[in-house]
10 kDa heat shock protein, mitochondrial (Bactrocera dorsalis), 714 residues
Amino acid sequence: MAQAIKRILPTLDRILIQRAEAITTTKGGIVLPEKSVGKVLQGTVVAVGPGARNPQNGNYIPVGVKEGDRVLLPEFGGTKVELEDKKEYILFRESDILAKLE
Amino acid sequence: MAQAIKRILPTLDRILIQRAEAITTTKGGIVLPEKSVGKVLQGTVVAVGPGARNPQNGNYIPVGVKEGDRVLLPEFGGTKVELEDKKEYILFRESDILAKLE
Amino acid sequence: MAQAIKRILPTLDRILIQRAEAITTTKGGIVLPEKSVGKVLQGTVVAVGPGARNPQNGNYIPVGVKEGDRVLLPEFGGTKVELEDKKEYILFRESDILAKLE
Amino acid sequence: MAQAIKRILPTLDRILIQRAEAITTTKGGIVLPEKSVGKVLQGTVVAVGPGARNPQNGNYIPVGVKEGDRVLLPEFGGTKVELEDKKEYILFRESDILAKLE
Amino acid sequence: MAQAIKRILPTLDRILIQRAEAITTTKGGIVLPEKSVGKVLQGTVVAVGPGARNPQNGNYIPVGVKEGDRVLLPEFGGTKVELEDKKEYILFRESDILAKLE
Amino acid sequence: MAQAIKRILPTLDRILIQRAEAITTTKGGIVLPEKSVGKVLQGTVVAVGPGARNPQNGNYIPVGVKEGDRVLLPEFGGTKVELEDKKEYILFRESDILAKLE
Amino acid sequence: MAQAIKRILPTLDRILIQRAEAITTTKGGIVLPEKSVGKVLQGTVVAVGPGARNPQNGNYIPVGVKEGDRVLLPEFGGTKVELEDKKEYILFRESDILAKLE
């Protein structure tokens, strides 16, 4: 029977990202119409895989982002993952992540 | 003549997974309508192959999951395998497995 | 002139497999209608090639199955080969073989 | 919640470029009609990633352009990035950059 | 001016094969209708190239068949070559040859 | 603002070529109709990039043509570049250049 | 201005071949109808490039044919080159050449 998922450990060079929630009200407090709120292309790294395999010897090559990093996401791609907390998680490959954000 | 299959030993980096059964009743015991019960994307590793070959020397590169691991599966892909116990088994390549679950 | 074929020696990482014959009667002896008897995805290894070439030095990398092994076949692919004994033989590449069976 | 972006650190061999603004008036001061002002294929490097990974050992291979370089851009491709300053930024891979300009 | 071809030396890992002639009469001497005589998938190796190049150092990797070997051919592919003797010759790459026959 | 381009330094294995001007009059001085003057497939190398990267160690592999070489161009491909002098420049990859001309 | 081409030096693993002229009359002197004279698939090597680059170190790997060799050409592919002498020249990559002829 499918059980509750407490923790996700991405495989290989996969990165689990929690997508940032969209800003739905302006600084002045005006609620933005839902249609104008596009997909948020930012997120926070929740978990990282051990890395891609080095084709020469099979060792893992650690990924270049770590838990807690804020990252810029591509508009498309990734695999949606649903956890119990109903937040939106996505699995990306390391090479899909566009940039780290500060 | 095709004989009964007692044990399956996946080749190379293939992983044999038994798909978790869907939860068809809510915690309160209400039976969910079949249509609402989507494909279960969780499963348990039943057997693993020796690993992909290192192109440099032909040695096997052991896979990163082992028997008993709970894993997150992609929605598509894999090869269905029927055994005598009528449970649902699927063969995936290691790189298809999205994550390990705890 | 095309001569009779006594022995087939597959090249490179090709594997010659004799497909198991379908079970056409139930244990109780009832003859199954032909349509219900799907393609048998099991077979026995009859001969193996020397292996794929190591791209680094050209040496052969021995395949991971041997004569007599029972194997699980993919539903599609492979090259049919007809020998004089009218049994069904198929040539697969090593990487196509899904699993060994016990 | 999506936060303001102060700094973008491109990943791998990605290069963040600010596209040069189009020249909309001739040297004589005549305002060019918008349609005649094509996409500007020049820009300035704002930030560079650590570089692509060396497939042999996983180390980064530093990119061949640096912050401040003026570069020639291809007409298509790249990923648009919007920052708070409303200027036009684009992320390209190193191998997409056509040339450095002096 | 195009001259007569006495000898063909295949390049790289190409193999020149003379296709076996079809058996057009049964052992009892009955002439088979032409339509029932499919393409003969057997042939004899007439000449072999020096081999594919080792990508590491450019050396040739000798092919695994030699002059005189009887081989099993795929149904499709290969390049037809006409010589003066009007026999049917075909050039295959080593990796296309399915098996050696004894 | 987009500035004038004094010098172009192609990246990686790109080669900047100035296309030779078409011969529009015969030796006898007759002006050829424009339609009969096909695209000129000759040009002169104006600038070369540092070379493609060696995938093993990231070093550049110098290209095989140099400034001033006359080269034979393929009919298609390349990226047009406009400079202030209104001459026709094109960026090709080294492997696109068909031959050097003397 | 496009100048006359005295000599062509193919780049990398390209081979310049002069296609043999078709035999348009039988040994008995009868002129063959043009339509029956197919494309001549023979030619003579006029010039060879330095060779493809070894991906490991960038060195050239000399090609396996030399000036004066008679070669068998594929029916399609190659790049036509026109020189002043109005003969038909074609540029092929080494791996396209099917065989050497004696």
In short: Strands of chain G lie at 8-10, 14-19, 42-48, 52-53, 60-61, 70-72, 79-82, 88-93, 99-101. The mean pLDDT of chain G is 86.
